[in-house]
Amino acid sequence: MLKWFRQLDEILRGDATRIGSLDEGKINIRVAGLSTVIILLAAIYGACMGSFNLLHPLGEEARIKAYDMYMQLLASSVKLPLLFFLTLLVTFPSLYVFNALIGSRLSVVSALRLLVASMAVMLAVLASLGPIVVFFSLSTTSYSFMILLNVAICAIAGMLGLAFLLRTLHRLVLVQEARDCPIPPVQQSQEPGGEDQQAQKVNAPPSGALDRVGMFTSRKAINVFRIWTTVFALVGAQMSWVLRPFIGNPGLGFEWFRQRESNFFLAVLRTLGNLFSS
Amino acid sequence: MILLRANDVLRATPWAVREGRTAGRLMHLGVLVVVFGVLYGAVMGSFAGVFGERFLQVVYSAVKVPFLLTATFALSLPSFFVINTLLGLRSDFTYAVRALVATQAGLTIILASLAPFTVLWYASFGDYRAAILFNAVMFGTASISAQWLLRRFYEPLIRRNRKHRLMLRGWLVIYAFVGIQMGWVLRPFIGNPDSPTQFFRQEAWGNAYVQLAQTIVGLFGG
After folding, report:
1. Domain containing A236: what range?
2. What is the pLDDT of residues A68-122, one digit of tens each?
3. Partner B contacted by A142 (CB < 8 A)
4. Given pLDDT bands bounded at 50, 70 and 90, which one contains residue A212?
C-alpha cells in the first residue's frame, strides 16, 4: 500500500516522468497498484461530495431520512471511482487509435500508463481539495452553490491532470525521437514550459528524413492530443451527469441514478441562474 | 519571551523561517497565533459588556479567532501541498509552510496591536453595525499588513523559482475563499447586545457567498 502511494508521490514530484526515467518510452509505474490508489482517492472525494446532506439544518422542510443521507454518502464514494474509470474506458480506444494514426509509437501499455498516471494526478488534486469541500458541504445550505463549487474544483483538478498528460506525452515523444536519431542526450528539465525549446533543440540538427518527419509528427501529435484532452474533459463532464446525483438534492429522495434528461452544460447554466434568483 | 518572538516575526528575522528545527518552530509560531488571537478575540467579544452572562461572549470570541485562523489554514494546506509538489516545488515546501505559519502569527500580532483602537471604538459608539464594520476594517488592515510580511518571507523563494509567486497567489485565493466562509459560520464574534449570548447562531448557518450574491441581485434587481 505504502509502495503505491510512493509511486503516486513520484508522479506528483515529476520523478517518474523525467526524461531520464522514461525508459523505452514508458512511464515506470504499476497500473494495478496505482489504480488502487486512484480508487481510494476517488472514494474519499466522493464521500466529501456526498456529505452535503449530513448536517442539513433544513431537515424539517426537506425531511431527509438518515438512511437516505448515508446511502448518498455511500453511493457517491462508489460512483466517483466509477466516473473516472468509465471516462477512461470511453476515451482510451480513441486515444490509442489516433495516436497510432499520427504515427507516434506509443504502445498500448505506454498509453494506458500515461492515462492512469494523469488520472492519479487529477485525483490527488481532487482529494487534497476534499477538506474544503467537506467544510462547505457541512456549513452550506445552498444546493446550487455546492454543485458549482464541485464543478469548479473538478475543473481545476481536471485541468492540472490534463496538463500533466500533455507535458508527459511531449516528453515521451521526445524520448522516442531521441532514441531514433543519434542526437546529444536530452537535458533533464523540470520546467513544464521548457519542453518547447527542448523539442526544437532535439530537432535542430537536420540529419535526415527521419528527423523532419519526427518534428512534423510531434507537432501534429501534440495538436491531436490537445483536441483529445478537450474530448476527455467533455466526456468526463457528461459522464458525471449520467452518473448523478453525487451531492444529493435535499428536495428529492435518494436514488442511485436519476432519469435521463438534459445535459451537464445546460444543468450548470441553470444552477448558476438558481444561485442568483433564489 | 513571547514579545521577543513576536518581534522576530514582525521583523522577518531568520528565526521564524530559517533557523532551528521546523517542528519546534511551528509550535512556537502556533503559540503566538493562539496567544495574540485570543487577545484580539477577547477584545472583539467585549462589545456588549464583560460582566455576567456577557462574559461568555468574550470567552467564545477569544476561542473563535485562533480557531478561525488555524482551521482555515488546516483546510487549505493539503491542496497547497499537492499543487506545490506537482509544480516541482516540493523541496521548498518546508520553508513555504514556515513562511505561511509565521505570517499567520504576524497577522494575529498586528490584530492584537490594533485591539486598543477597538476598545476605544466600543467605548465611544454603541451602534452594533458600526462595530461590525470597524472590526472588518481592523481585520482588513491586519490582513493587508500581513501580506506585506508574507511577501518578505517569500522573497527568497520567488527569487529561486518564479513559480512560487503563482503558488502564493493561489494560496491567498484558497485561503480567503475558505476563511470568509469560516468567519461566516463561526459568527457571532462581536455579540449583538439585543440577542442572547450564544456560541453559534443556528439560524445563520449558511453560505457567505450565496448571501452576497443574493444581496447584490437584490440591490440591482429590485
Report:
1. 2-277
2. 778 888 888 999 999 999 998 998 888 888 878 777 777 888 888 888 999 999 9
3. yes
4. very low
| Residue B74, helix vs strand vs coil | helix
Under 8 Å between Cβ of A81 and A88: no
| The total number of residues written for chain A in this structure | 278
- The three cell numbers of residue A28 are 515506470
Residue B176 has pLDDT above 50, yes or no: yes
Measured CA to CA, the distance from residue A190 to residue A21 in angstroms comes to 13
**One-letter amino acid for residue A256 of the chain:** W
**Nearest CA-CA partner of A170 in A120, A215, A125, A204:** A215
User: How distant is the Cα of A209 from the closest Cα of chain B, in angstroms?
Assistant: 36
Joined grid coordinates for residue A258: 436519476
Give me the residue from A14, A124, A144 closest to B82, CB to CB: A124
User: In total, how many domains does chain A have?
Assistant: 1
Closest CB to B178: pick one of A132, A141, A275.
A132
Question: Can you give the residue ranges of every domain in chain B?
Answer: 2-221
Checking if the pLDDT of A145 tops 80, the result is: yes
The C-alpha atoms of residue B108 and residue B69 are separated, in whole angstroms, by: 9
Residues of B with CB below 8 A from A127's CB? 78
Give the amino acid at B164: H
pLDDT mean across residues, chain B = 87
All cell numbers assigned to A132: 474544503
